[in-house]
Design goal:
five-stranded parallel β-sheet, FAD/NAD(P)-binding domain, 23% helix, alpha/beta, 8 helices
């Protein structure tokens, strides 16, 4: 079967991938979005009761109003918004189709997925960073009791839960599980709760720790995980505590192997920040553009929906200028 030819192929159907599709549609370009999971797959995998730090107008794309019940929308409201934007604009998106190979050619790119082959003059990578968790790399991490994603608190009622980390995701999980009847212990590498934790949540977790409702070990890390206990390295020595589940919410990272194989260079080896033009978002590979949080490498706190949605217009403008 002949490869399907496209002007632009977009990898990733998150909010920024959707924003790119909207801009390319305005230019009447032949585009297609490929997404390995569901629409806005990362948002779908967020905790059920999550509330965004950003207000709804800062999550809007293409000036399409995002109406929410409160200034800061919930996960479900965001899913509804991006779903409506996609369907009402009849965007061309293939879900549950994963890109397996991407190669630069003289004419453009050859792209292979697990379902079809494509050629494209331009490719936009907007895959985010939520797909690959940062591992603890300790014995027992492969046990079924260890989770790197948190969805809801109910399964952990009346259980001994270790929450690793002190970011927004860790704090939200610790508070929810505690309030649903779980016995929560936090293991934090630093000496305090993270400074980027939502300002209306930070006093709550600090007060729960101070009163002893949630136990916290600071300047500590897990050394070993066993079926019914864990061992923690603390400033006061090793401690072994009873444990039923470990919630290792230690952050996530982009698929650097995929970027490297595509030929993208990195300006900072330690932080894995990819090379790209600040005005066009074009990488060091001609015709290959980067959009969204993937531009920050390991600095996953640098780019958000609200400050990277402009990438879509920048890329569309660059592609239009090149065509002219």
């Amino acid at each position: 079967m002949k490869d399907l030819h496209l002007d632009v192929l977009i990898i990733g159907a998150g909010p920024i991938g959707i924003a790119c599709a909207l801009e390319l549609k305005k230019q009447n370009l032949n585009y297609l979005v490929l997404e390995k999971g569901t629409l806005t797959n990362s948002l779908f995998n967020y905790p059920l009761n999550m509330t965004f730090f950003s207000t709804s107008e800062k999550l809007e794309i293409d000036n399409i109003p995002f109406i929410s019940n409160n200034p800061k929308p919930t996960r479900n409201e965001a899913l509804e918004y991006y779903r409506r934007v996609t369907t009402s604009n009849a965007l061309k998106i293939n879900l549950y189709e994963e890109v397996t190979d991407l190669n630069k050619t003289e004419e453009g790119f050859k792209v292979q997925s697990d379902k079809a082959n494509y050629t494209a003059e331009n490719v936009i990578i907007a895959t985010g960073f939520y797909g690959i968790p940062n591992l603890l790399n300790v014995p027992g991490e492969d046990l079924p009791k260890v989770f790197h994603y948190y969805k809801e608190a109910h399964p952990f009622t009346l259980q001994n839960i270790a929450v690793v980390g002190a970011s927004n995701s860790s704090v939200d999980a610790a508070l929810e599980i505690y309030r649903k009847g779980g016995n929560v212990t936090m293991i934090v590498r630093g000496d305090s709760i993270g400074e980027r934790v939502k300002y209306w949540v930070k006093p709550d977790i600090e007060n729960r720790i101070e009163e002893g409702s949630i136990k916290a070990y600071f300047n500590s890390n897990i050394e070993d995980i066993k079926p019914s206990e864990i061992t923690i390295n603390t400033p006061d020595g090793k401690k072994t505590i009873a444990n039923d589940f470990v919630m290792a919410l230690t952050g996530y990272k982009p698929n650097f192997k995929f970027l490297t194989k595509a030929g993208i260079a990195f300006s900072n080896d330690e932080k894995h920040i990819p090379d790209y033009n600040l005005e066009t978002m074009e990488s060091n590979v001609k015709g290959l553009y980067l959009a969204g949080v993937i531009c920050g490498g390991m600095e996953t706190h640098k780019w958000f929906i609200e400050n990277s949605r402009v990438h879509a217009k920048m890329i569309a403008k660059a592609i239009e200028s090149k065509a002219d």
